[in-house]
Design brief:
Blueprint lengths: L19 H41 L9 H20 L8 E7 L8 E6 L3 E2 L5 E5 L6 H5 L8 E10 L2 E9 L9 H8 L15 H7 L7 E5 L5 H15 L1 H7 L1 E5 L2 H7 L2 H4 L6 E4 H4 L11 H7 L3 H11 L5 H7 L6 E6 L2 E6 H14 L3 H24 L5 H9 L1 H10 L5 H10 L1 H8 L5 H5 L12 H14 L7 E4 L7 H10 L4 E6 L13 H7 L6 E5 L1 E2 L4 H10 L11 E2 L5 E6 L3 H12 L6 E5 L4 H13 L4 E5 L8 E7 L1 H5 L5 H9 L2 E9 L11
Parallel strand pairs: 2-4, 7-13, 7-14, 8-9, 8-12, 12-13, 15-16, 17-21, 18-19, 18-20, 20-21
Antiparallel strand pairs: 1-2, 1-5, 3-4, 5-6, 10-11
Helix pairs in contact: 1-2, 5-6, 6-7, 12-19, 12-21, 13-17, 14-15, 18-19, 18-21, 21-22, 25-26
The protein binds adenosine-5'-triphosphate.
Keywords: ATP-binding, Helicase, Hydrolase, Nucleotide-binding
GO molecular function: 3'-5' DNA helicase activity; ATP binding; DNA binding; hydrolase activity
Pfam families: UvrD_C_2 (PF13538)
């Protein structure tokens, strides 16, 4: 295949070689036309939306604040839409308007169709497409067609770009029957990382495209070794879903959930460059509001609170408040045979059997506590209404019904048999009432485990795990909100209880779960996707595995694969498509001085340098490096616990044995750290390297 240098080269052309310079000039002029057409689209959008806003503003003149009308709401929405649309149409010279071209048909010399493929649709004044959005149906062939399955494609062209202009292209003749490799793809994958994550829209691989374009109704779980493109797939899937199901998702929402703010910052630019600036990207803590926690659990308490057994304990804690009919009748001073309700001279009787059947149905047929209470109340009102209809021959109205609902006997009975509950009160009772706790935890937690839930005093000191439990309790009381589609990255780290909270937010939607069991570093990290998918409420989700590594070069992948058998998970190792890259290990009596030298050397090359150390070693490292190195734009110092998902051209891992020594998860933290390297990895150590690394 051709190279992407400043001169275009084409090697796989079937027929007489075209005049490449002439072709390049034609492509550049197409780029100019597309750029001009996009500027026209910008102008037209600006003009139209400004007119509509003016009209609405004119109509709202002289209105008082209290007169806010639906027009004002429309104006607000329109303003927001306008800003987004204009931002999307604004030309950014650093983002090429197209990256590929497809010729389709049967006759290689006379194609029927010819499309340029880019990040967004661009049309000329007569609505003729100049660039097709990569998400359009026909563009799928750009990613999937091969010599083995041509899908009507005759030729595929990939463009090389530099400084906002086309520097070259390479052509692939799909009718020639020979597989080809792409220099443009290789260059793109090996390009130095200079900032946040980029989109991969120009070089999406067939196995990735397969996942990106899976139907909205399909829930997917993508397991993949480090650097196999899981995050990239998740983000491009989000963009594809929004394009294909815009209206539906505008109503029901699409959310991206990531492990921490660092990670969200790193991925934050991908969707906006794909024209999707309004997607909400949240950490799991923001989604569940756990940052509001003012207190911290002991590790033992946190572990128990995140365990799936807590789901049943919460269920019992709520439903155990339901009393029996005889107890409730006694409590409100009524006879065991039933309840007598007086209302404006009338006396209505509801017998024991009627009440008992109603209470049983309320418990059996309603999955939430408050829905059960409502069913019971409505049942009592209907029972009385039926008697009223028989006696008076008339059907009472709604006003009468709500009066009966407020009747002291009816209210007293409902409070006694089915007291109104608040999630916080239930949690407080679980933590402070020893007998109640024992009753709810029976057969689920040992007594010493139960003790970790105990809390002295009456005031609830909420921890992050407590907030997740409140969410669970809340869901036993009433239904939570639902969402259209959720993309959950680094999902292996979710606890069963966090997964259940997510499940409640996507009960009627679908999800894309991305992760790597080998990178699980929370105390409750998943060991099996099947189990986690069950907690996420999607046991039927399709499980797929990606194994081709696009980030980590072969020599470093080999090191990571040495560690894999020691990580206690059953996942496939990565196969890197990158033959470049360098792995060094430097023995330094003082690892801080060694790190300083390694960073200085790393800075001699292009790209970002990530320095990863045991969390506790980070302050000393920053001090040792001094302000010049520690604050260099190209150097980032990362505690091992938050390195997940990130990548750097050169990674310096400081004292790997310290990281590996972290209880239970040390080796996995080290596995994550070494797999952040795009080109070069230096291991700086004074202690012996952990033997699981299999390094000399
Ligand atoms: N088809 C592709 N073309 C070009 N670059 C790609 C492609 N697929 C993935 N990459 C690049 O490979 C790197 C790794 O991708 P990504 O972060 O999505 O992997 P991951 O599987 O989520 O990794 P990890 O498990 O380590 O977080 C990124 O820089 C991404 O842009």
């Amino acid at each position: 295949m051709s190279s992407t240098g400043s001169t275009p080269v084409s090697t796989t052309e079937p027929s007489p070689a075209p005049d490449l310079e002439h072709e390049l000039a034609a492509e550049r002029s197409h780029l100019e036309r597309a750029t001009a057409a996009m500027a026209d689209m910008y102008e037209a959008t600006d003009h139209l939306t400004a007119l509509a806003s003016e009209e609405i503003a004119e109509g709202s003149k002289n209105l008082a604040i209290s007169d806010i009308t639906s027009d004002d709401t429309v104006a607000f929405a329109l303003g927001k839409h306008r800003a987004q649309r204009l931002a999307d149409l604004r030309h950014r010279p650093d983002i090429p308007l197209f990256f590929g071209r497809l010729w389709m048909g049967e006759e290689p010399t006379n194609p029927d169709e010819d499309y340029h493929i880019g990040r967004r649709h661009i049309r000329d004044e007569s609505y003729h497409p100049l660039v097709l959005d990569w998400r359009a149906r026909v563009a799928e062939r750009y990613y999937r067609a091969s010599v083995h399955n041509r899908q009507d494609v005759l030729k595929r062209r990939r463009f090389g770009f530099g400084n906002g202009t086309i520097t070259g292209f390479e052509d692939e003749d799909l009718t020639a029957g020979i597989d080809a490799t792409s220099d443009i793809l290789a260059t793109e994958i090996e390009r130095p990382r200079t900032g946040p994550m980029r989109d991969i829209v120009a070089t999406i691989q067939p196995e990735q495209d397969e996942l990106i374009r899976r139907a909205l109704s399909t829930s997917l779980c993508v397991q993949g070794a480090p650097g196999t493109g899981k995050t990239a797939v998740g983000l491009h899937r989000a963009a594809w879903l929004l394009y294909t199901h815009r209206e539906q998702l505008a109503k029901n929402g699409l959310l991206i959930i990531g492990p921490n703010e660092n990670f969200l910052r790193y991925i934050s630019q991908v969707l906006p460059t794909l024209g999707e600036a309004s997607v909400r990207q949240l950490t799991i803590d923001t989604l569940l509001s756990t940052q509001a926690a003012k207190h911290t659990d002991t590790p033992e308490a946190a572990y128990i609170k995140h365990n799936e057994r807590m789901a049943e304990i919460c269920r019992r804690a709520v439903w155990s408040h339901v009393s029996t009919v005889p107890t409730a009748l006694e409590k409100i001073g009524q006879e065991p045979e039933g309840m007598v309700i007086s209302d404006e001279g009338w006396r209505w009787r509801l017998g024991y059997q009627f009440l008992s059947d109603l209470a049983t149905d309320a418990g059996n047929e309603h999955q939430t506590y408050l829905a059960g209470l409502d069913f019971l109340k409505q049942g009592i009102i209907s029972g009385i209404r039926r008697q009223a209809e028989l006696r008076t021959g008339q059907s009472p109205d709604r006003k009468w019904e709500s009066k009966i609902g407020r009747n002291p006997v009816v209210k007293g009975f409902l409070d006694a048999i089915w007291p109104r509950l608040k999630a916080k009160d239930v949690l407080r009772r679980l933590y402070t009432d020893c007998d109640f706790r024992a009753q709810c935890c029976e057969g689920l937690l040992t007594t010493s485990e139960q003790d970790h839930l105990a809390m002295p005093g009456r005031s609830l000191k909420l921890t992050a795990a407590d907030i997740v439990l409140l969410d669970e309790l809340e869901s036993c009381l009433t239904w939570s909100n639902l969402s259209g589609h959720l993309v959950i990255d680094e999902a292996q780290d979710l606890s069963p209880m966090q997964a259940r909270a997510i499940a409640r937010r996507s009960a009627h939607g679908s999800i894309t779960v991305l992760g790597d069991l080998a990178q699980g570093t929370t105390p409750w990290a998943a060991h099996s996707w099947k189990e986690l998918l069950g907690h996420l409420g999607k046991p039927e989700a399709e499980l797929c595995e990606l194994t081709i590594g696009y980030r980590v070069p072969e020599a470093i992948v080999e090191l990571a694969n040495n560690m894999l058998p020691h990580l206690d998970v059953d996942v496939a190792p990565a196969k890197s498509i990158r033959r470049d890259g360098k792995l060094d290990h430097v023995h330094a009596p003082n690892p801080l001085t060694g790190a300083k030298q390694a960073i200085t050397q790393a800075l001699a090359e292009e790209g970002l340098v990530g320095v990863i150390a045991h969390d506790a070693d980070v302050p000393a490292l920053i001090e040792a490096l001094g302000p010049t190195l520690a604050q260099t734009q190209r150097v980032e110092i990362i505690p091992a616990s938050v390195a997940k998902g990130l990548e750097f051209d050169h990674v310096v891992v400081v004292e790997p044995a310290h990281i590996a020594a972290v209880e239970r998860i040390g080796l996995r933290l080290l596995y994550v750290a070494v797999t952040r390297a795009v080109s070069r990895l230096t291991l700086v150590h004074s202690l012996s390297l952990p033997q699981e690394m299999g390094v000399g």
